[in-house]
Amino acid sequence: MNRLLVLALTLAAPALTSAELVVRDLRASAGVRPTAFDFTLATPTVQASGTDGFDAAIGLELGGRWSFSRPGDAIGLVVGLDGILDGYSYGGGDGLATTWLRVSAGPGWAITDRWTLTGEVGAMYGVSAITLPPTTTSSDFSATGTATGYDVRLETNWLLTRQLALGAYVGYMMASHDLSGDAAMTIDQSGMVGGLELIWRFTDAPPRLE
Length: 210
Prior knowledge:
With 210 residues, the chain is mainly beta. 8% of the residues lie in helices and 68% in strands. It is elongated and about 65 Å long. The chain starts with a helix and ends in a 9-residue tail after the last strand.
């Protein structure tokens, strides 16, 4: 048994050490967002706060990744830029919609020529709009404003061909929305995120030596 393990590690070692981190990707993804939120609501006559939840939440992303590493290195820095549209439904109404610009950076590891693992820390800035349906005690509510957010992600992708890959990510996000309109409202979110990606690697040429 020990001899078989040593033999397997010996055969696998060249493949693990020969991988080179080359990320030159365009990515499209769809994922889930946290539904629970804390809120504060202020009108000229009423101020309220509490915890609530959206019925469902989805995020659509389009962006890119670029790696920086020395020639031959399997580990390096990966930076990213994404445009994101998050949608949250609430009570049969439109709910909350946020358009984000996200920048990210973190370490990347080319495990093999086909498998890559990256970690990301992201910062987001966006614009939000909310529409809530009427209730028995109040009319419908709408407001717009800005949003800020941060997240961390762990992502892996697998090359099907030299240019086409599939990926998946899981992480945790925190976001805050500052809204005004019919009344002033703030929404604070935190929770797990996850999604699936379709990736186009427009080049797999490694960095040049000079």
